Each structure stands twice: as C-alpha cells, then as structure tokens.
C-alpha cells in the first residue's frame, strides 16, 4: 500500500465526544482513510457510528480531537472540508412536496456549485431515477427515497460519500440494490464510508473494515487481511469408535477431542503454506484411528466479528 | 460567501410560499378588510380626526404593521422549524454554509414574503380609504427594516420551539397584544398619563409610530427615536442568533 506517499482523504485524530449530560459516545478515535477506499464502520446499535459521522459533517460539535478532510480542518476550514463531503443520513428525511429534480438541484446549490443540468441528469441516471425526475418525493417508495438521498449527496460531486446504515430496515432485494449502487460508486472513484451492523454487508462491500464498540474503534483492518489473520478453518473428523485420548504423536497438532470422544476437531490456517492435513491423516491411520466422515467449516467474518466484540468486553 | 447556497435556500422558501400563495395572501387581506369595515367605516364614522388625519386613514399604517409583524414571525418561525421537525435540516447544517448565509436565506425569504403581504394590504387599503403617503422612501425603509427584524425574531422562535403549539404561542400571546396596545388604532396621547407612559415601554409602539409618520407626518414619538429603536431590536435579534450558532443551541448536540 502507498499509505505513506498518499495524502489521506480523511484523517481523524484522537477524537472523543461527550454529549451534554455527560454521556461519552466516542473515546479517542483515530482513523485514516485513503482516497478511493470503500470503508465499512461496523458496530452494534449505539456504538457511536452516527456520532462519528456527525462530527465529521458538522452536525455535532467537535470539542476533543481533530478531523481533516483532504487536509482541511472541519472546524477552521469548514467551507472547504464540507464541500468535499456528501452525506446520506440514517433516517429517510425528504421534502414531501418537492420534485426529484428540484430537490437534487437544491442540494447542488446548497453546496456552493453553480447550476449544471448535465450533472444532475447524470447522477439521476446513475441511480435509475431519471424517469422519476418530475415525481413528487411523497409518491416514491422507500428504496427510491433512499436513492434520492444518495443523488442529493452526490449532486455537488463530492470526493467522500457517507452512507449511514444504508440498508437498515430494508428487505433483501433493496439491500442487494444498495450493494450494486456501492459497487457502481467504486467505479467513479469516490471514497465511500458506510456504517452497518450487518456483518455480511461489510464483507460484501468494503475494502477495509473498522469495528466500533461502545465508542471505541477496537480494530481497523484490510478486509482480506482480517480474513487471513483471523480466518481459520475447522476440520472435524467423525470417528468410528470412541477415542480415549489424543495419541502422543499428534500432540503438536491443534486438536480437540469432543466430549463424547466420537470426533476430533482440527483448527488450521487456510492460508498457511502447509495445512498439515495430509500428514495428520497419515498419522491417524498409523495410530489405527478409523473415521467415518470428515467435515470442514469456514469461519465467516460474522464469527470473527462476534469474537471481536466479545473480546472487547 | 456561498451565494449559491443563499440563493438555493431563498428560492426554496419562496417556492414554498408560491405553492401556498392562496392561503398566504387571502387570510391577511381578508382580515384587514374586516378591520377597515368595522373600525374604519362603522366606528370611524363616529370618530373625528386624530392628529389631523381621518380615522379610516389613521389606522392604515397600524394595520399594515399588525400583519407585517405577525406574518414575519410566523413565516420565519415555520421556515426553520419545519426542516428541524422533518429532519431535512441535516442537509443545511452539513453544507458549506455559514450562519450568516443560513440566516440570509431563511430570514430573507420570510421578510420578502411578509413585505409583499404588507404592500398588498396597502393596495387593499386604497379600496377603502383615501390617503397619501408623505414619505414613501421612509415608509419602505420601515417596512423592510421591520419585516427583517421580526423575521429574525421568528427565526429564533422557530429554533426554540419544540412543537407546533409553541410556534403559535409567541405571535398570539406577545405580538398581537403589543400591536393592539402600541397605538395601532389610536394615538397614545388619547390615553391617561399613566397608560401613556406604560405604552412607551412597548417596542411595537415605536414601529407603528415611525411608520405612521412616513404616511402622515404625525407620530407619537420622534422618527429618529423610532428608527433607533428598530435598529436596536434588529441588533438584539442578530446577537441572539449569533449566540445560537456559536453554541449550537437546539441545533447541534
Ligand atoms: N444528541 C445526543 N445526546 C445524547 N446522547 C446521544 C445523542 N446522540 C446519540 N447519543 C448516544 O450516543 C450513543 C451513540 O449513538 P450513535 O452514534 O447514534 O450510535 P450508532 O449510530 O452506532 O447506533 C448512544 O448511546 C446514543 O444514545
Ligand atoms: Mg446510527
């Protein structure tokens, strides 16, 4: 990675947030995002995902720590910093009586860009909204409203797009649709930061994943790296006869004997040069252990995540 | 300055007003016509001149002020309260827009609308009574300054309000009484001394008085006192709004 040569598009340094009333929603968060990345902020409800986005976008007051967008401080250079950001909020909030075209054009003006129908047209077409451009927002379905919010956020051609829980409370079809939208965004080169508490969603869309729990960013890792580091497979060997103990010549294997002594489970790294499976089988045969079946199981990111959140407690 | 944003907010608000143009204009024009019929024609015919002006003509500036104040406050309050209530305010707050630009957009639109209504009422008044405007420029100046000042006040109310009832509360409980007691329908010289002195504490008196001077050169207080008081209200309202944005009161947690 060229992390040292590239200027980060987003830099969060030692950011904490204490709400009035004393609740500490974020604790010393550090995060750097590179241009063009798709980053997923993964965490359960109330972890502080929306709070972090609100601090970046200026919806909540930043009192502790520093945030820059493409090098511009979000407080002292808020014109420049915010101009680079598009935000799609968690809640579906739209002006019921506006038309699609007008509301998207409004957003472009609000972000300081001159009128440009070709941009609006391109954005609407990319989100399959062009046919609906004259429709009033209240006549649209929930999925379309979400896309209108994305169109509004893209109308000023931002470099960073925040999608706060883009698929919360939507059905499977809409979720797939959203995954496709993000895949299309990747082609345009815009940096996408999305939040979710669906693990498969982070796995599906993101290049990098940050796990946030109780206001702390407990891990940030390249998705594949995360899989490699933590991803392991389990091989379960179902035995024909109960085994009293693990034979001595297998002691250096990561083996576990089930309580009923009818199966052995072997944990191994799927990415290791040698998984050791062939030797294990040979040694088992030498020891006269006979087996009926073998089953392998891939640990998904979901299990990793559950493990992480438990570790964090 | 982000002028594109000011224009976007301003036009958004103006378009909203145009969509509901019927109700925005019909109700103030209707109620003002009723005042003319009841106070001007029915009662006014039994009242002689006040300060050398026929009663029907005397109440014209006061009635315009009454509508200007209530319209300014309710337009501006609703304009900023509704996006807060609906949640769409997030977009304005996350945009590269300063407090000054937000206020120019929202308050400018509310003031425009109420000033328009004021002018429409002025035109309506010509149907009921004969009058001439001695100082049209001063008249317009007071109209604009007052419309803007009370739109600022409405903006503050719209940020403070937690529900639709509170939006109605201030115009109903504060502005209407102050306007009625501020010499809209009479000269405070007609009051006993004690109540005359109490009236001088009423800020709206200075607005109505200055406005009436622009029409008839007749006023309860000097035109310069009126102008200074109007500017003072404006400064107070601007300070309050500056404080709101500085602290994020009710808008940024
Ligand atoms: N305006 C606020 N005032 C006080 N507490 C808040 C406010 N907004 C959020 N919180 C609290 O901060 C925590 C994190 O909230 P949030 O950032 O919305 O979490 P997430 O988006 O991860 O679900 C929650 O416990 C929430 O109750
Ligand atoms: Mg959230």
UniProtKB/TrEMBL annotation, chain A:
Source species of the chain: Fulvimarina pelagi HTCC2506
Lineage of source species: Bacteria, Pseudomonadati, Pseudomonadota, Alphaproteobacteria, Hyphomicrobiales
Protein name (Swiss-Prot/TrEMBL): ABC transporter ATP-binding protein
A GO term for molecular function: ATP binding
Similarity comment: family membership: Belongs to the ABC transporter superfamily.
Pfam family, one: ABC_tran
Database matches in SMART domains: AAA
UniProt keyword annotations, A-Z: ATP-binding, Nucleotide-binding, Transport
Keyword Nucleotide-binding: yes
InterPro entries per the UniProt record, alphabetical: AAA+_ATPase, ABC_transporter-like_ATP-bd, ABC_transporter-like_CS, ABC_transporter_ATP-binding, P-loop_NTPase
TrEMBL record, chain B:
Membrane-spanning ranges: 20-43, 55-82, 102-128, 140-161, 167-186, 198-215, 221-245
PANTHER family: INNER MEMBRANE TRANSPORT PERMEASE YADH-RELATED, TRANSPORT PERMEASE PROTEIN
Family that this chain belongs to: Belongs to the ABC-2 integral membrane protein family.
The ABC transmembrane type-2 domain, residue ranges: 19-248
Organism encoding this protein: Fulvimarina pelagi HTCC2506
Record's bilayer topology term: Multi-pass membrane protein
Cell compartments where the protein resides: Cell inner membrane; Membrane
Any Pfam family the entry gives: ABC2_membrane
Keywords attached to this entry: Cell membrane, Membrane, Transmembrane, Transmembrane helix, Transport
Recorded GO CC terms: ATP-binding cassette (ABC) transporter complex
InterPro entries listed in its UniProt record: ABC-2_transport_permease, ABC2_TM, ABC2_TM_bact-type, ABC_2_transport
Primary localisation category: membrane
Annotated protein name in UniProt: Transport permease protein
GO MF term (any one): ABC-type transporter activity
